[in-house]
Amino acid sequence: MQAEAPIATIAGAFSATAERYDAFAGSHPHLTRIREKVYACVAEFVPAGASLLELNAGTGTDAVALARRGHRVHATDVAAGMLARQRAKVESAGLQDAVTVQECSFLDLDRVDGGPFDAALSNLGGLNCTADLAPVAAGLRRLVAPGGVAVLVVMPRICLWELALVLTGQVRLATRRLRRGGTIAHLEGRHFPVHYFTPRHVVRAFAAGFDVMAVRGLSVLTPTLESKNLAIRHRRAYAALAWLDDRLSPRRPFRAWGDFAVVVLRRRAQP
């Protein structure tokens, strides 16, 4: 098992890459599709006007989008660079009354201001920066109101698109999710382990207090998030893959074989 990196190392890496991350996300139709799929899932399970706690909120793209859809969002992140861009986006959008921002790790949810919340969201694999989901589950049991929903988007152990890289000779990259103890990420000169979870692992970690509502694959047959060019340069091929992805990603076994998996949990009513 890889040793856990200090939170400061992870925070420093994501702070340093905040501006570059937003630049990469611009004109990225595939990433836009991924985000819209997550927003549709939130809309399906979370009532309009709900209060929403966002973990690993990054540069604030999701917080702004969900606030524009009528939610009240408390956006948390541990990286100062990400938080600065969050605040700037919220102010630029005029959403200061709908979005609050707090520096807080998802491993330290006792520090979260406010609550209980109607829902919680962790998007785009932020939770994969820890090997242990137990502190997250315990924190959300306190912060999500009974009957509320947690929408958790994690990177699973099987990714068909990455496994196909074996055919190009990139065996190490193709099999990185299968390694015991995860793999080491290299970001802005900092190194930290990334861990991959099956949807079943997530459901088990949250079993005390949450019932599973849905499990869906995300980008099962479409490329990984890092791929920007296929959707731009080969639109017909991408559209065909997206059409097939929409139909297979909610089904077994495909729902556990994507770049991401969406696990929707409902907070069990207290006795």
Mean pLDDT: 95
CATH-assigned homologous superfamily: Vaccinia Virus protein VP39
Give the strand order, joined by hyphens, for the main sheet.
3-2-1-4-5-9-8
* Total of helices: 11
Shape: globular
Secondary-structure-derived class: alpha/beta
Radius of gyration: 18 Å
- CATH T-level fold name: Rossmann fold
- Topology as H/E string? HHHEHEHEEHEHHEEHEHHE
Mind telling me the CATH class? Answer: Alpha Beta
Q: Give unreliable regions as ranges.
A: none
Number of domains: 1
| Total beta strands | 9
Query: What is the CATH architecture assignment?
Result: 3-Layer(aba) Sandwich
| Helical fraction | 25-40%
* Percent of residues in β-strands: 15-25%
What is the CA–CA distance across the termini? Answer: 38 Å
- Major sheet summary line: 7 strands, mixed
